[in-house]
Amino acid sequence: MRFVIFFFVFISIGSLFLSPVFAKENIVKQDVNKDGKIDRIVHFDGAGNILKLEVDSNDDGKMDRFQYYKGKILIRLESDRDHDQQIDSLDYFCKEKRIRQERINESGKLYQITFFDDNERPLRIEKDSTDDGRFDTLYYFCEGSLFSSTKDTSGDGKINTWQTFRNDKPVEKKVDDDANGLMERIIKYDNEGLPLKSMHDLDRDGRMETFRFYQKGVIALQKKDHDHDGRFEIITGFKNSEPFKE
Hints:
- By secondary structure, the protein is mainly β.
- The protein is 9% helix and 47% strand.
- It has helices at residues 2-18, 20-23, and strands spanning 26-30, 40-44, 50-55, 65-70, 73-79, 89-94, 97-104, 110-116, 122-127, 137-142, 145-151, 161-166, 169-175, 185-189, 195-200, 210-215, 218-224, 234-239, 242-245.
- The protein has a 19-stranded antiparallel β-sheet, with no helix packed on it.
């Protein structure tokens, strides 16, 4: 009886040592451009399925792209875009299509997230422009083209800037500096994306009294109607962005 028990235990322990052989990871190193340096490292599982691919994209001898697979399908790409040996971009995939990208700054903070549509075109971008950990700027896309954006410039969590775009160029911008629901500034742009006309509520009484007109994006004329009677009391001409006639 003792011999039988010992033999059973021996067989069980032996199977534990044998089983990892079938799950052992295999690594294949390649020098694709034949320059004497390894520029690709492929990791396979015991069944020959790819698990990870490392790539040296700029031939400096350091791996800067890391592709991860599950069931032979790419699920994540980690990149060192500036080649400082720190991952600064992460792309996530679903059914072999990129659905999200995360950007990381030099201090290791996530500062931008991009979401993609079914054709892998940008759908929405969320950005932390002040490095305070809050996504204060949002960009919205239609068929891959930017058409609007919103921004919280004061850091109070309230959107106070709205902008629309056409052909990736600004069309109109509205600004509510104090976030009270009344616009202090509205800017309209020409077909080249340069300022064409702007309206300002400089005294913040809820009514626009200052109107500025631009030529090729440079201010050329300003009109002010302080008492809001429909007549301009002050008209100022500009030259090289400086007033020269009033």
